[in-house]
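quick one, 842 residues, struct below
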Amino acid sequence: MAKKQKPEETNVPQSVSAGGVAVGGNVEKSVIITGDGNAVTVNYYTSDGEKREMRTGWFYGHRYGDLENFTGRTDEFNMLNEWLGNDKDNLLVLRALGGFGKSALTWQWFNNRVDKTKWPTAIWWSFYEKESGFESFLAETLAHLGVEVKASARLQVNDLLEAMRGTNILIVLDGFERLLRQYGRMDAALRSDDEDAAIDPSQRDCSSPLTETFLRGLSGAGMKSKVLMTTRLCPRVLESADGKLLKGCREAPLAAFLPEDAVTYFHNEGIKATRAEIIEVCSKYDYHPLSLSLLVGLINEDHEHRGDIEAVKNLEIFEDVKARRHHVLERAYGSLAPERRDLLSKISCFRGSMEYAVLKKVFPSPDLDKALLDLRKRGLLQYVSPLLAGEGAGVRYDMHPIVRHYAYDHFTDEKRRKEAHVQLAMHFVAVMPVTNTKVKTLEDLAPVIELYHHMVGAGNLDEAWKIFRDRIWTTLYYQLGGYQLQIELLRALFLDGEEKPSRLKREYAQAHSLNELANAYSMSGQPHRAVRLFEMQNEIREKLGQKKEVAIGLGNIASMVQIYIGALSAAEHTQHKAIGLCQEIQNDVQEGLHHYELGRVLSYTGKWNDAERELITGLKIKEKVFHIQAQSIIWSYRALRFLLMARELGTQFSMGSSQLTVGTNQSQIENLKSSIECAQRALELADEQAKIYPVPRDYVRAYWLLGAAYCMNNELTLAEENLSKALNLCRQINSVMDEADILLDVARLRYAQGDFKDAQEKAKEALVITERSGYVLQGADVNLFLAEMALGGHGLQDTRYESPKEAARFHAEEALRLATCDGPPYYYKVAYEKAERMLAGL
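---
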């Protein structure tokens, strides 16, 4: 986690001054800078006209290492300057494999080529650091800008995008590939580029939907700010259906050094060589920057030809260029004295940069300072001085990911590697807080996570699991909503991949770890990745004869995965099986849960009487044992049933009209009234439960259904009030599985209010979630609404369709496909029949 830095004050040329207020010449009309000529506070306006304040200044979330002899890259500097100065590209993706100098180039340009008078506000953030994920970036950036850091990460995305639209901010996101699925794991620093060659395109998806929301927001209209991203892989979210980048986005592949740059670099490093000799040697490595840096280190430390290019003329040359690059790293590592090779490999065990004070404590040696200096000279270690690291910081050291990967793989033996991790684990045991009572942020958990990492590295998986279970899990899952980090941590236990159980010794622990990994996938909007995990944990429970736990596991897979992905036949049969197990072991309390979850499935398949019977059965059981929270859920499910019945009976679309109209038959009116009453009762019970322990998701569900019913009943003010509460709370707890439903009903509300633009935006946002997460039932509803909007003349702008009618047909066909699920009777009945009617009319 980054240490907060004191923001630099940036002078802005004063063109008008009166009463202590200055308007900078480069500042947009809506921005006023106050103070005595120093950029301290900026006023900007959000898209809805709200006036807000923001601090200016340059903020370094992290720092890059020393670059004493940075050389060349004139063309790249010119390209970056041109991009920063144009008004069409908001996002620049600087893409290259490891070792091409993406970070070094960007750091040099950011600090030495950007005009601070034109860009008084700038952010540097590196995702290579520990606990430097996207949510940390959001919170620390907003805190630096002086913008309120709200509890919801989703609201933080909105606030940052609003600030970026309101004024000009320059943001550098270094190492963005760490936010992609290909690298979204605890051992990302040890992964090789070789694994990127033939990856599935889905591996270029962002691990978090929040990250994709932010990137899509950069391509929107009115964006005044600029974002420079360095990455090994281009995020797929930036590409449209035809593979082209979204408007406002630009990709620039970073090439190797130019021959003349290599010559200058070698001469600046004091290497004795002619131009021809340098070109002859460097061309063999395709002028790969990291390889050239290692060559310089070899030359300067060679005993026979120190400082002379003769030292590397006789290196073995392989036919394949990648093999040559690997060979020069092998020679650089092999030229070290054994104790320094060992030190470098030990340092590679850290997940990110490391403080000198920690190195000195963990690896005490009178030779340590000399060894660190030697590793720096050889290009194997980077140094961040206290002057760069910010006020209160100590000296830090870092390693290039390629060097880290190589050094970690080349311990003397596996035993030495595990011993190094144990040595580091002992340090973090000593600095770890005794309890989690004071944990408020991810940074507070950092020592515990570091200890977990070293326990995994030492091969002590069972000890690592205990640390996760007792010190990380509940805080991360229930308090911080850190589902993606939970996935990264738990995946480290699955040494054979997620197709097999973890390597924990006790089978019940294997089952537990499978269940928590599945839960994290489900909550983060990745239900398909949870299916097999839930199934495996149930297989273990069945083997152990734990019938109650098997029933719970069956309920999890049905209610958290199968119903969302449209596996309605499986969801119904799974709940029936769970009920049978509960009856076998005479566990009425657990049985009640499966009855009301079965009632939800039956509501979607349109079996109204069966659904009500199951819901009431569950309600009676939960009332008998005074389970307040479960009662709240059941009343919400009853509200859902009545709402779906109302949609079946009366929803029609008046083509050419600006409103979605509702039929007026008496049954529909009664169903809407019942839905409202049930949702109100669910809220009352959520309040009662909150006196003991609040469950935010129960409020989300109840507010959503109450707002949806009010909207359908044309009570728009009440609909606005409840849907706003539902969406805000949903985003506070990062509940991806509920967000699309709420967004869709907000879109319906906006349509009824005549705000067609916002209706389009909310519906489009809901569509992205359903497509990204594979939510079938929600996807059917969203496509039906988009079809209705298209027929009403307010469809999304999409060049794929020649007419609104064609767009409506596409979305109606997509809705029918999704609503089919497993085919009647296991289908989403209301949506299926509505799509059929619409297509018949078209």
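Residues 1-39, 388-392, 651-663 have pLDDT under 50 and may be disordered.
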